[in-house]
Amino acid sequence: MHADRQQLEIAIVGTGAAGLMCAIHAGRSAAGIDPPVRIRAFDGAVKLGAKILVAGGGRCNVTHYQVDEKQYAGTSRNTIRNVLRRFDVEPTKAFFADLGVELKREETGKLFPVTDRAMTVLEALLGEARRLGVVLSHPDRVSAVSVLEDGTFEIVSTSGVYRSRKIVLSTGGRALPRTGSDGGGYQLAKALGHSVTEYVFPSLVPLILDPSCPLMSLSGLTFPATLEISEASGRRLHAFTNSTLITHFGVSGPSVLDVSRYYTAGLLESRGVSAPVLSMNVLPGMTTDDVDQWLLKGGNRGVANLLAERIPDRLARLLSDVSEIPPSTVCQSLTRDQRKRLARTLTAFVLPVIGDRGFTFAEATAGGVPLSEVNASTMESRIVPGLHFCGELLDVDGRVGGFNFQWAWSSGYIAGISVARGLIPASETKTL
Question: Measured between alpha carbons, how far is 258 from 147 in angstroms, rounded to an integer?
Answer without folding.
Answer: 39
